[in-house]
Amino acid sequence: MANGALEIVALLLTLIGLIGAAASTGMPMWRVTAFIGENIIVFETRYEGLWMNCFRQANIRMQCKVYDSLLALSPDLQAARGLMCCALALGGLGLLISLVGMQCTSCIQNNDRAKRLVLIIAGTMVVMACICVIIPVSWTGHVIIRDFYNPLLIDAQRRELGEALYIGWVASAFLFAGGCMFICCNVQSEDKASERYMYSRASDYMTYPPHPSLMSTFNANANGSVLYGYLF
């Protein structure tokens, strides 16, 4: 019963992390214009994302344009696009696989070992999705911080951390928690099940009394042997 509740909690954490990863992938707020120095008088904000860059001026709606080519992105954003797509695929597939092995579903019946193995595989895929999220988010954040303190760049070229990076970090934490819960709960259950199985084998040992006909035959043979030894 406790494992069933933990599986539901892990499923919710994975779902929240997957939604956050999808939002971070689609948002253009990976890099934001830094208002420092003389840029404070310019009422224009520039956003750079994985799929498009956007501009927002004062009292005007945001205008976005999709990148004309993948080569227009910096190396960190190029890698981030591929890794975030892999994270969504792994997280979504792991979420679907976990539904098959949960105790509250009846997709696999009368085979608890198979259910636990399915949940371990699903948890591993969710943890891999977490890694695919945290690598591009942290890499992009590192590049932004490095360029911000680079004295060779002018103020107009400096960027700040966007909202999508923070959402990506939080989403990776949820994915990591959900995947670890799927793995740890079922690995522990596997060990306990094997111990119970070994103990039950030892405790079910029973001794049966011999059959009466066999006892009479054994006594007759024993008496004949004694009489034969007495005569000779």
Automatic annotation (TrEMBL):
It is found in: Cell junction, Tight junction; Cell membrane. It holds the Pfam family PMP22_Claudin. The chain crosses the membrane at residues 79-105, 117-145, 165-187. It comes from the Eukaryota. GO terms for molecular function: structural molecule activity. Its main location: other. InterPro entries: Claudin, Claudin_CS, PMP22/EMP/MP20/Claudin. Residues 1-21 form the signal peptide. Keywords: Cell junction, Cell membrane, Membrane, Signal, Tight junction, Transmembrane, Transmembrane helix. GO terms for cellular component: bicellular tight junction; plasma membrane. It is a multi-pass membrane protein. Claudins function as major constituents of the tight junction complexes that regulate the permeability of epithelia. Belongs to the claudin family. This is Claudin.
